[in-house]
Amino acid sequence: MSASPSYPSLRFGMFMGPFHATNLDPTYALERDLQTIQLLDRLGYDEAWIGEHHSGGFEIIAAPEVFIAAAAERTKHIRLGTGVKSLPYHHPFVVAETMAQLDHMTRGRVMFGAGPGALPSDAKMIGLVPANMRPRMDEALDCIVALLRGETVTKKTDWFELDEARLSVGCYSQPTMELAVTSIRSPSGVVAAGRHGASVLVLSGVDDESLLHHVSNWKIYEETCAKHGHVADRSRWSFAIQVHLAETREQAFKDVQYGLEKWIGYAHDIVPAPNPPPRGLADSAGWMNEHGRAIIGTPDDMVRIVEHMQDVTGGFGGVLVFAQDWANWQATQRSLELIAEEVRPRLRGSNWLRQASYDRNAPIQEQNRALAKAGSDEAMVRLGR
Asked: Which domains does the chain have, with CATH numbers?
């Protein structure tokens, strides 16, 4: 009999910055992002997290809440989150009110993901110093969580003030919507998440070194959760990774020739993360795979690597695919379809009972044929034929 599923509750979703090279018309790109969410909804993906960026030209969604409101009207099931809202850029009361309103408008499908802001070029334009971003995020998040839970908040900082502030309309979800904080390198993200019992969204490579770094951060998360009276739940630990799949590895490598080099240029020129992939490699896709920066290949490759990630980390609850234009639109859609068609059912074990039924009956097919023939013969005799 077939084995029972190993990861029956593993969620699949998208982390949508998004990444669009500057040759793509922005109006069309935003429409295509909405169509991508619709596709994910039809394919049964669980969630999508929408980013906020204000410079650099690639990640063009400035107001994730506005995008989520539009996407919610086009979809039925998928949950939609800010991935993430850059808290130092906004007054916390307005953020809390906006998210509570979206919670009602989506009938509980919205999630609130928070971060400090990823691009120094964003902060510079509005007069913020990157070194202040994390402390400001923590100050804002403390207030936003309290407001979303219906509390009254009084707080004065050097950049915002709340005077007996309280939402006039609370959340649809009780006690509040799902909360999440991003974790990239430092432990500050998991500390913020642990204080509030929030989910953790990891932006990571798939190599062992990166995974073990996040295992260390997870231990800090567990300690922080315990200190603040929360339970660290691995089902709320998600990994956002770079993926492109095709029916063959050769086809996947060919597909990403369309846009991978443009994305590598963006990683060098705009993104502040260290050690971007080298420019101008003859085999950039091979380099990305070899160094654990991405999964470019077949459904078999993704199943194998995600299973290895589960083993190295001790288990997590969500796989998020970065939204990017490494391949053209048609090949990108096919990659998402392959994840839904072949990767998700294998990792979740969705078909184990079906396969068990098949395996149970296939060895006795001759007996079944004989029984069917006997039934047919009996009917013919009964009817005088």
From this structure: 11-350 (3.20.20.30), 355-385 (no CATH)
